[in-house]
Amino acid sequence: MTRPPAGTPYWDAAELPTQPQLHGVVTADVAVVGAGLAGLSCAYHLAERAPGLDIAVVDAEHPAAGASGRGTGLLGPRAGPAVDRAVRRFGPQTARRMHRASERAVRDVLALCARLDVPCGLRTGEQLVATRSSAGLAALARQASACRELGLDVPVLTPAGIRDRVGVPYRAALLHRPAATLDPAALTCALARACADKGVRFYGRSPLLALRPGDLVGPELVLPHGRLYAGQAVLAVNSAAQALDLPVGTVLPLEVYAVATEPLSAPAYEALGGRAGHAVVDAVPMAPYFRLLPDRGLVAGGGTATVPAGVGAPRLQAVRERAWSWLERWLRALHPDLARVRVTHRWSGRIGMTGDDLPVVGPVPGYDDVWYIGGCCGHGLALSVAHGAHVAAALLGEPEPGEPLPWHRSRAPRLPARGPAGPLLRAYVDAMGRIARHTC
């Protein structure tokens, strides 16, 4: 079997709705820019709650072409910084609300999958945040203490408890529930089809070039071959906010890396938690993680992150090759039977990071009736769906069920992503990756 070209994700985007390019002048009640999970969740909840609304979804490529179709499919609770740091920054009450909101987001995705009847390899299980290093052990101890003080149900696993689940010699772990693994592209495409079934219009290969205040009502969206005038707009564009000069603070694009393997032997698959569908994330920031696939393959990610701005294409490709090679070596060391396992897919994706690890979900400053969603900091599978539902409720003027999002805001902190300080920021991210690789 020939390995697909480098950069090809394990997941396939299939059965998409018709997506002509946008030409000429088009109008809509609501324009959603970005056909990833956040934008499609927003369009879906708008169409479900207000069936007569005229909704147009516009994307630079097609649904699942971006981060939502290039992730690794780990569905677990986490929003913002680790819980101990959240307590120090925001106080115990807000930290507790943040964690519980992230748990609710996971449950909402599971409910959405059931409602859509998505054939996306969904496996509910547990997510272990584990460590084999002294630095990770100290981080887990701080998080475990904070969870106890906040009354959160996050059990601590001893090495024996970990071995009962995953046959890798981790020293300790925190057990997060609810959690699951799934095919992120399949979920994204299923949402797109559900939106189309509800009358949502799609325009593909139509990147947003500029956003302008409209002459009469709502914003004007400038596209390569036309204009879109809408009463309201949602910009679910994540780190593309930088290129559009949106006044939402710094949502830094980071390129992250993943690989997938051929099916493992039955003993290796079971030893790594195959029957229960666990996923294992290292406690050290940017450190590698893995999950298993329904076809008995394994997906691994992490270990390296790159700030792509200012990095030439040849150098960026060299960085990708090194990141993939390191991930291959790391996963082969997980279990003896993985020593010769063949890697079938190698790919990368862009996530949006903020200076304080919190997302940005709120109205765009200076624009009437325009909202922005982005900056999930690597936890976008659950949070994106929650953010789309949150913004849909806000646009319709409806109360949101449950507590409001604790991180509702319009701006992230500014980071020196451009100008003379840009190389220093890239060097810092590179150093964090080296530390993560060294400790694992």
Automatic annotation (TrEMBL):
This is FAD-binding oxidoreductase. It comes from the Bacteria. Residues 29-393 form the FAD dependent oxidoreductase domain. Pfam families: DAO.
